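HUMAN: Spend a minute on the protein record below and explain its fold to me.
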Amino acid sequence: MERYLRNYDAISEEEQAALAAKRVLVLGCGGLGGMVIECLARIGVGHLRVVDGDVFEESNLNRQILSSTMNLGRAKTLAAKQRVMAVNPLVEVDAVQADLTADNAAELLADCDLAVDCLDNIPARLILQQAAKTAGIPVVHGAVAGWLGRICVIQPSEDLLNLLYPDPQESQGEERQTGTLSFTAALTASWQAAETVKLLLGKTGLQGEILEVDLMQAIVRKLKIS
């Protein structure tokens, strides 16, 4: 298919067909989630379930690729669905205007091959980790704070978020003090998308590791989890 011509040979035709059959849950359609959705739609993941209970506001415009001055006040999930339809109508989008909770987590994860954590608060991230463990699927986690980005893959047998966020009562991470920059979100989300595609295709990715990117210092660190 000419649409995917530039994917070859980095991705084979057989792998392209395999991606078309995959189902991915993207939680959060903001700075991280918008770019993850963009990348996964363009590369040809066949079904995306996008979840966010928020609407666009002016403070989103500095970094969120789905936001514009034209859609302030509109649901982020609606913008995500419309964007995917415009970019790649071969991709099915299930847009869910809701926040992730312990009550709806299992339903949102149902039938998905993996989940991408683009959430903006720690309690919801921990709910996702537990629900994915129960569902037996991996989570691709991403977080940003100023010039810093962090990515890791959480397998159902792991609880990496408990190490990253030891205080479950804390609502937000470092971004509360450091802000969120457009290029940090874009790079972190792109790496999340890459790890997602590798998982879907059975390729080796991050395993028991946390990847940290410091754009101010131009440093990438890979931390082993013991």
